[in-house]
């Protein structure tokens, strides 16, 4: 889900942006006072902040950072906010500026337990907010709409990481995230190493699980082994170089296999 949020001082200690009402109403099982007032319970949002706009609506920074931000509740309204105090302080983004925020998932932690919920899985939503001044809102909105297709693809990509975590494959999810970070920062050989680790991890999952019927387990194992061999041939350790083309293929293989296996495991596990 994509929205433009204004960075505001919301309480004495919290600087962040208000979350869209449509989101908080749709996920009312999470966004309710009981969740936020229960001792030991915390809610976090996994998000990607793409660009920063000034008060006039102009792009002033290509931010492109993944963040895990606390969610806070202001119950007098009621309003729920994304706490971006660390982003504000760490990167010097002024209060009053606007952020292009792509929300991926919500994580609720309660004691030693936690569960993750994907936000509008397999669906892309762009929620326009009423920003002030109107000029800034209009200009920023036009710029965001021009970037929607790219952010839609990015959101779908990062959603796969959420599918893996929900399926209990946290280590593979971490490797995929690191591979994507390196890919999008043009470290193509570095990304290939992590996409190879993803395929290796998935190969081990297929070997250890009994949820696949018929010959599917055998065929998947063979495919994963061949994919692992191919990606292994792309790195400098194999005496070759991995360019954008090899990195893109490695990414696509890792993403498609991750999505399929994570969703299939969740289905078989009753998730």
Q: How big a fraction of the residues is strand? A: 15-25%
Q: Count of helical segments?
A: 9
Largest sheet composition: 9 strands, mixed
Rg from Cα: 20 Å
Helix content: 40-55%
Would you spell out the secondary-structure blueprint of this structure?
Layout: E1 2-6, E2 8-9, E3 15-18, H1 21-26, H2 33-37, E4 41-53, E5 59-74, E6 79-83, H3 85-91, E7 98-110, E8 113-118, E9 126-127, H4 134-145, H5 148-166, H6 170-184, H7 188-208, H8 216-232, H9 244-268
Parallel strand pairs: 1-9
Antiparallel strand pairs: 1-7, 2-3, 3-6, 4-5, 4-7, 5-6, 7-8
Helix pairs in contact: 5-6, 5-9, 6-7, 6-9, 7-8, 7-9
Mind explaining what this structure looks like?
It contains nine helices and nine strands. Helices cover 47% and strands 24% of the residues. It has 271 residues and is α+β, with helices and mostly antiparallel strands. It folds into two domains: 2-148, no CATH class; 167-268, Four Helix Bundle (Hemerythrin (Met), subunit A) (Up-down Bundle), CATH 1.20.120. Strands 1, 2, 3, 4, 5, 6, 7, 8 and 9 form a nine-stranded mixed beta sheet that branches. The longest helix is centred in the C-terminal third of the chain and has 25 residues, at 244-268. The chain is globular and about 55 Å long.
